[in-house]
Design brief:
Length: 178
């Protein structure tokens, strides 16, 4: 985890602005902004002041690092799983499909997976922020989802019904690999 990510994490955890953090650290707003955007790295003395500030507010870097490493580990696991799935598809189709056609198929499926996960995550996050903690777009009835179609198309530029999300039929498409 680099320094800019630590600054963003701390500001988010304490719910403070860049100006507030700058005031607390006795540096300029521009300095905090540059740290957060990775434009400059702080000198050792500024890092020490930042570390002291975090300790004073009960934020341990071991907690931050553990959270960051869990995210990295999850990404690696997802990447390995995707690699395994693509490899199994390729083995299943070997010799029966031209390489170019296979590439087009895989890229299309990856894009469809991305937009399926993107819209479900976007909607779930919005509903959870609105106070519905257990909301899951994948379980919503298509008729109910249709009510938000126009707004989603304006906001995201696309819309997918819950029943048409890749997650809903990937086991039927790829029973031999999943």
């Amino acid at each position: 985890m680099d320094f800019s990510e630590k600054v963003r994490y701390v500001r988010g955890k304490l719910n403070i602005s860049q100006e507030d953090l700058a005031r607390s650290l006795n540096v300029s707003y521009a300095t905090v902004n540059r740290w957060e955007n990775s434009n400059i790295k702080p000198i050792k003395m500024a890092q020490a002041v930042f570390n002291d500030f975090c300790e004073t507010h009960g934020i341990s870097f071991s907690e931050i690092e553990a959270r960051y490493n869990m995210t990295d580990n999850k990404k690696e696991q997802e990447r390995a799983e995707l690699h395994r799935i693509i490899w199994n598809i390729a083995n299943g189709l070997r010799g029966s499909v031209d390489g170019w056609d296979f590439k087009q198929y895989v890229l299309g499926m990856l894009f469809y997976r991305y937009i399926s996960e993107n819209i479900a995550t976007f909607i779930n996050d919005g509903e959870r922020k609105a106070g519905i903690a257990s909301f899951d777009y994948t379980t919503l009835a298509d008729k109910k989802a249709e009510e938000g179609r126009d707004d989603l198309v304006k906001t995201k530029g696309f819309f997918i019904l819950p029943s048409e999300l890749l997650k809903m039929f990937e086991n039927a498409l790829f029973p031999m690999i999943i």
